[in-house]
Design goal:
The complex is a heterodimer of chains A (379) and B (78). Helices cover 38% and strands 14% of the residues of chain A. The model of chain A has no long low-confidence stretch (mean pLDDT 97). Chain A has 379 residues and is of the alpha/beta class. The two termini of chain B are 13 Å apart. Chain B has a single domain, classed as Alpha-Beta Plaits (2-Layer Sandwich), CATH 3.30.70. The longest helix of chain B is centred in the N-terminal third of the chain and has 14 residues. Chain B is an alpha+beta fold and 78 residues long. Chain B is globular and about 35 Å long. In chain B, helix 1 crosses helix 2. The chains are: A alpha/beta (379), B alpha+beta (78). The interface between A and B is medium-sized, with 26 and 20 residues.
């Protein structure tokens, strides 16, 4: 199989990730639930992973790195834990349903929502964001990179707007963490939400948040904490405040190994490799008659995603043919980003998404292009 | 029979703070180890750092330098 669905999950992981998970499965106790060697080993691995993530994201305090099951859980905690009825929120048409649906829920409870539109290339206008700020605006919630087009939002610019108006910036780094540079301090990110199984190269079931000092988040869940058992209320200290219940220690062990791999390799090297593959695929695909490509490819920075359609073929048919006839794995249809599809005019047809990772090769690109040429050729 | 001696015990609000303490002490070669919070300090659960009483000054300085907050620091029979 030529796996080009890395925006859904990176299938291939560093060998150290597999080893870390296997070792944890046979030796790890429950962090914070006992002080024997196995429990302490779990706590050590989890703490070390916090330290590595804090380093990767330039966070000042590992205790404000919170583990969750995925980016969706992180975004739900961040959005529902900071925004209330009467608050105004700014978001964008690039967002995934993991942002939009929690915001729609809050809107139904009295929050006010401004969704910045995207143009036909899937870009927002930053002047629209500045103009959308109102006296009751509480937060900006936006993605760092679109999972459909690969277009990026400049979080330095958004962070500057948030800083100028005293707004909370909640950033969704699902498609960028581990590949793009994310500096929570320089970008003025109040809450960074990430998943562990995409660019961070860790196991599924891992994710988290980085909460800036001073930002208070109401927990979605309360319960077991490993401390203060006789208190009727859940501890308020971070990260325990947002981590009720047993953590996914086995997964976090793998995530820790993955982040160490990224720190050793360097995001620049990872990014350069992915970008070269993405550009080669883009140049090859745009030369094929009948292929339409979505997104902004003039931008300097973009995720290694190329979404296309072939003539008027249903995207599901194209993806199925790529898999069945050529062994190329991609994702078709809607991509949990309904507003983005509407902006691109692909709500009915969907889109065929090719997404590349550090472990893909130029041979993968050439094979996918060869398959695409045959599928796009007219009888 | 469990033999008790006077020890310096430092408790924390979170497991994460306790792990930060262990890491800082390991890196600095400082005295002590993690133990369950003694019931004489607080009924319940959690981790505490246990060290020789004469380590108090050095550990306090290390915690200040590393920005590690504790809940309590006291001497008790452990």
């Amino acid at each position: 199989m030529i796996y080009l669905d890395n925006a859904a999950t990176t299938m291939r992981k560093p060998e150290a990730v597999t080893q870390a998970v296997v070792q944890a499965l046979s030796s790890m106790g429950n962090s914070g639930r006992g002080v024997h060697g196995a429990a302490l080993d779990a706590s050590r691995v989890i703490y070390e992973t916090r330290v590595r993530l804090a380093r990767l994201f330039h966070a000042p305090d590992p205790a404000r790195v919170v583990f969750t099951a995925n980016a969706t859980q992180s975004l739900n905690i961040a959005i529902k834990g900071t925004i209330g009825p009467g608050d105004h929120v700014i978001t964008t048409a690039l967002e995934h349903n993991s942002v939009l649906r929690p915001l729609y829920e809050l809107q139904a409870q009295g929050a006010r929502l401004t969704i910045l539109p995207a143009d036909s290339l899937g870009r927002i206008d930053y002047a629209d964001m500045e103009a959308a700020v109102r006296p009751d605006t509480r937060a900006i919630v936006c993605t760092h990179g679109s999972n459909l087009t690969g277009n990026m939002i400049d979080l330095h610019r958004v962070g500057a707007i948030a800083r100028a108006h005293g707004l909370l910036l909640i950033a969704d780094a699902s498609q960028t963490a581990g590949v793009m540079d994310v500096d929570v301090q320089a970008m003025n990110i109040g809450i960074l939400c990430f998943t562990g199984h995409k660019g961070l190269l860790g196991p599924q079931g891992t994710g988290g948040m980085v909460v800036a000092p001073g930002v208070q988040v109401r927990p979605l869940l309360t319960g077991g904490s490993g401390v203060m058992s006789y208190s009727r209320t859940h501890p308020q200290q971070m990260p325990t405040a947002l981590e009720a219940g047993t953590l996914n220690g086995h997964g976090i062990a793998g995530l820790g190994a993955a982040v160490q791999f990224i720190l050793n390799t360097g995001t620049q090297a990872i990014r350069d490799h992915e970008r070269a593959l993405m550009r080669a695929f883009y140049e090859g695909a745009r030369a094929i008659e009948g292929v339409r490509i979505y997104g902004d490819f003039e931008a300097q920075e973009r995720c290694a995603i190329v979404s296309i359609n072939v003539r008027d073929y249903d995207s599901a048919e194209v993806a199925d043919a790529l898999q069945a006839q050529y062994g190329v794995a991609v994702r078709p249809g809607a991509h949990c980003a309904p507003l983005m599809h509407e902006a691109l005019g692909t709500a009915a047809q969907g889109a065929v998404r090719f997404s590349f990772s550090y472990y893909n090769t130029m041979d993968d690109v050439h094979a996918a292009l060869a398959a695409l040429r045959e599928l796009a050729a007219e009888e | 029979m469990i033999k008790k001696t006077m020890r310096l015990v430092i408790t924390f609000y979170t497991t994460t703070e306790a792990m930060a303490m262990e890491r800082a002490c390991r890196d600095a070669g400082a005295d002590g180890r993690l133990i369950p919070v003694p019931g004489s300090i607080r009924a319940g659960c959690g981790l505490a750092w246990c060290a020789a009483p004469q380590s108090e000054e050095a550990l306090s300085r290390l915690m200040r330098e590393q920005g590690i907050a504790c809940e309590q620091m006291l001497r008790c029979l452990v």
